[in-house]
Amino acid sequence: MTHATDGLPAGKVLDVLDRIADELGDRFQGTFGRDTVERFVTETYYLLERTATVKTHLSTLTARFARERLLDLAKADGLTQVTAPQVLFVCVHNVGRSQMAAALLAHHAFGHVMVRSAGSQPTGTIPPVITEALGEFDIELSNGFPKPLTDEVVRAADVVVTMGCGDACPVYPGKRYLDWDVPDPMNQPLSVVRTIRDEIDRRVRQLLEELQG
Fold this sequence. Notes:
Number of helices: 7
EC number: 1.20.4.1
Order of helices and strands: HHHEHEHHEEH
CATH topology of the largest domain: Rossmann fold
Protein name: Putative arsenate reductase (ArsC)
Pfam families: LMWPc, Phosphatase-like_N
Distance between the termini: 57 Å
Helix content: 40-55%
Number of domains: 2
Strand content: 5-15%
Structural class: alpha/beta
GO molecular function: arsenate reductase (glutaredoxin) activity
Number of strands: 4
GO biological process, one term: response to arsenic-containing substance
Largest sheet: 4 strands, parallel
CATH class of the largest domain: Alpha Beta
Radius of gyration: 17 Å
């Protein structure tokens, strides 16, 4: 039985992961050893592979998400000097509310806030109606994909915003937790998604003002 990533047979998966580990090993040289980088790359691939609906670009997504995770691990462990606050948005599937909130905050913050999103049960793909609603604000979401909630992303966050994920998000002392009661945009028409988008945008702008204050 074969298992594939990006159309490659199972025997090629390790080669792909080694290549990603080589690239990230160079990126994080002096911060993390090769063993740590390899472990995160392998774990990231299987986390994404387990829930991915479409596996066509799995190696590319693995490289992107593993890099984010290593950046967050470095921040959480005090191995890097990061002055910008970091906000994590969490919903259930990470294809609706949390993606919209993260995209809106990144759009308004102009790089002055680090933004992450994750799902307590990540699955599926971002619906076109979500992409369309954000596109009306000139926000591109073509590269978004559902990401699992991992320990280091919570540890690295200064503010954790939950959006209908219940008690799935771990609680760490010294962090600010917000719970936004926002309707789920999944399976809703564009008119309803616009209303949800505008409510999230209002909350995001308020949060940004507080972070910059």
